[in-house]
């Protein structure tokens, strides 16, 4: 009986070893498995922005004594408006042309705008300006042109029974420019007149062009009419200034033959 118990115990010991071996082998296999890889996140691509606007100043054509045609190009998908700035001094752009509306394009768009009321035999400096739908502004480089010189028209004096004699009216060069007042005070909506007088050497500069210029800030307070006027036989040109609805000071500059004279207008 004792031998039987010993035999059974020996068998149970052997079976336990066989049972434990597969478990240990499986555990070893699980411990050597390759760890799971972390997925790679691809960064979002950068959106492509619209082309920035660009403007290029071109040459002036059709130049006369009082007018010219300014040219240039503009590009950019956001471009909406184009115009020119100009003046008789380099780097000073007191005058602006009319505005040309355009439809933005990545390709160059030809721009052509006429300006008038210029002074004869005068150098003008100008540049193109472009604006996009967001209000951003781009400027072109500065270029220049010179208006033509106005010559006197020969006058013919008829004489009965005689051969007509051609005479020439002497040219009276402008030596000085004066205004009727240096300061002007206006109520809102009120108008006032300013007379500009040109003087020569013992003569009256007749038929000369006088241009009235105001800055963008001044244009919010006043308006001037006409933009340019021709002097009469006494060398005078008259301008009407109208006050708008915004209080403050404004400046009007009168130009002729490279001479300038300014007045201060106060709107109350």
Descriptive account of the structure:
With 268 residues, this protein is mainly beta. The chain has two domains: 93 residues, Immunoglobulin-like, CATH 2.60.40.10; 96 residues, Immunoglobulin-like (Sandwich). Strands 3, 4, 5, 7, 8 and 9 form a six-stranded antiparallel sheet that branches. A five-stranded mixed sheet has the order 13-20-19-15-17, with no helix packed on it. Strands 12-14-18-16 form a four-stranded antiparallel sheet, with no helix packed on it. A hairpin with a 2-residue loop joins strand 19 and strand 20. The radius of gyration is 43 Å and the shape is elongated. The N and C termini lie far apart (133 Å).
Q: Could you say what the CATH topology of the largest domain is called?
A: Immunoglobulin-like
Which assembly state applies to the chains in this document?
single chain
Question: Which structural category do the helix and sheet elements fall into?
Answer: mainly beta
Highest-level CATH class of the largest domain:
Mainly Beta
Give the CA-based shape.
elongated
CATH homologous superfamily name of the largest domain?
Immunoglobulins
Proportion of residues in helical segments: 10-25%
Beta percentage is 35-45%
Please work out how many helical segments DSSP would assign: 1
Please tell me the total number of domains.
2
CATH architecture label of the largest domain = Sandwich
Radius of gyration from the alpha-carbon trace, in angstroms: 43 Å
Mean pLDDT value: 82
Q: Give the biggest beta sheet.
A: 6 strands, antiparallel
Secondary-structure element pattern, one letter each: HEEEEEEEEEEEEEEEEEEEE
Strand runs, count: 20
Taking pLDDT < 50 over at least 5 consecutive residues as the criterion, the unreliable ranges are 17-21, 23-28
Termini Cα gap: 133 Å
